[in-house]
Amino acid sequence: MKIYLAFDIGGTKLKYALINDQGQLLKKYSEDTISTSKSAFINRLNQIVKRFEVQISGVGISVPGKIDAQTQEVSFGGSLPFLNGVIFSKLLDTQLPIFVENDAKAATLAEMWLGSLKNVGSGVMLVLGTAVGSGIMLNRQLLYGFHQQAGEVSFISSGQLDKEHMVGSQSSAVALIQDIARHEKLDDIDDGQTVFRLIKKGNSYAVERFSGFCKNIALLIYNMQTILDVEQFVIGGGISQQSIVVKGINQALDNLRQTSPFVSTTLKAPNVVSSKLFNDANLYGAISHFELSEDRNSNRKIGNI
């Protein structure tokens, strides 16, 4: 049985885990992400790799930013700008194979391997967080696009090319929680548990804001479906652990479709379901390459067409 080391690099937290080739998460760790410098950050990763090197068969890394399919070079890096231009295989002091993937695409690969896309031919993963991450799977192949940027749905505009008019801002799960928390004067504006208790209890502002959020996601799904015609959309991110999220999105999608009999009778709606791996999806996706290597090789060719 093989064991892999998976990294999920975030702007605030660095998560890493040991996962075996059967998809069992053996041990998980979390610590603050070093954001002071690239050298300090890479040094910490090397320390972690060395700690587990004798027992692992490979290293998988989920990271914000665009990943070059051939060179594995990171472009951009979200809140970690020093990741721009980084090629981890050149900086990590190990001879082990290393695989790097964009965080949303890693989540999609995880759901393809072990989750809600496992037995699905074509589907879309939507990761609801600070913005909206996405991965598109067509005929069991993850779509990368000519410029390696397929699925960047946060940049979809409702009219103007500024953040206010883009899906990433209009459909931010973090903004949803913070807006409600501020309105209700909660001590912690990131207290998602309390916010969802308010929604479930029928707090008028919380329910209205949540309803608008679900409508935005439903509209995104409707628009993507008209182009892609996939079987299933999977809702991921921490917020997806709240069962009312997928329920609310499904209701909003049904309501939207019913406003047009022409649409509802002409176009079939996709299934909309929750992620099965939730916040661990990026970790599983980071090492899924080692178990889905044949698929991945063909995916990369497709992605570069």
From TrEMBL:
The keyword Transferase applies. GO terms for molecular function: transferase activity. Keywords: Transferase. Transmembrane segments: none annotated. InterPro entries: ATPase_NBD, ROK. PANTHER family: ROK (REPRESSOR, ORF, KINASE) FAMILY, SUGAR KINASE. Belongs to the ROK (NagC/XylR) family. This is Transcriptional regulator sugar kinase. It comes from Companilactobacillus kimchii. The lineage of its organism: Bacteria, Bacillati, Bacillota, Bacilli, Lactobacillales.
